[in-house]
Amino acid sequence: xxxxxxxxxxxxxxxxxxxxxxxxxxxxxxxxxxxxxxxxxxxxxxxxxxxxxxxxxxxxxxxxxxxxxxxxxxxxxxxxxxxxxxxxxxxxxxxxxxxxxxxxxxxxxxxxxxxxxxxxxxxxxxxxxxxxxxxxxxxxxxxxxxxxxxxxxxxxxxxxxxxxxxxxxxxxxxxxxxxxxxxxxxxxxxxxxxxxxxxxxxxxxxxxxxxxxxxxxxxxxxxxxxxxxxxxxxxxxxxxxxxxxxxxxxxxxxxxxxxxxxxxxxxxxxxxxxxxxxxxxxxxxxxxxxxxxxxxxxxxxxxxxxxxxxxxxxxxxxxxxxxxxxxxxxx
Length: 331
Ligand code: SF4
Description:
331 residues; alpha/beta; 8-stranded mixed sheet; 5-stranded antiparallel sheet; binds iron/sulfur cluster
């Protein structure tokens, strides 16, 4: 599979009054053509900031640097704001967490859905309207003619998210970034939206990056997973490797805190004790060290190197060192 997106050594920080927040620290990853990749981690782990950095959608007080951000053969670090804006919507679509705040409350669905078609594809009003109707049908919105005239507040949460998806795919982007697309929805609608994204992925061969803290969402959508912690990639691998052969203590913690459908209904969930690191002053060594029950003296002093376990599986943990204690996941 050829790479559509290749990011090398991305660093993002925010200058705020009391110091610098080091949100993303030297991460590298790739996304193949037509591949679906999940980025999972707690709030503040850097997953959303990573993709907003790639898109160039961060505010002025953010500093972004990277050795390379190559998208479809083009070096994005060399593009100006105008060129980046032209890519948004036409080549990369975004679906945000809360459609109520992402959709403009002052414009009806037709205006918001036809705008990218007119700007990026040069369609006239009639052509854009016809395509908008087609898109609403594609995202399974009933009675699309009537929906075009409605405003966001007149739609249910699920409908609004479907409209967001229709806008994201309007110009046939090569990649769609979905940032917590189902968090604001109840479970039934959540399942319908995931079904819809899965269907789109297979029918349009669009690459999808799914950002979420929900491993269940990742499991149903993604073939490869990046586990982020403290602005770094703690572990990456195929869905099978992450769910069945995880090697990083943080990934173990995430998996152990998922409720099991089978087993004792009174069984208590195992939380990951402690809180995420303060990225104003991230730990000197492994960012997970203050919460890790297997922490060794070296972990507090040195950032763990990335250990490659297979073509697809890599882990950043000192436990991978041949002389480290042999520890396996406790389930
Ligand atoms: Fe735990 Fe050390 Fe591995 Fe970090 S490097 S996850 S502290 S064992």
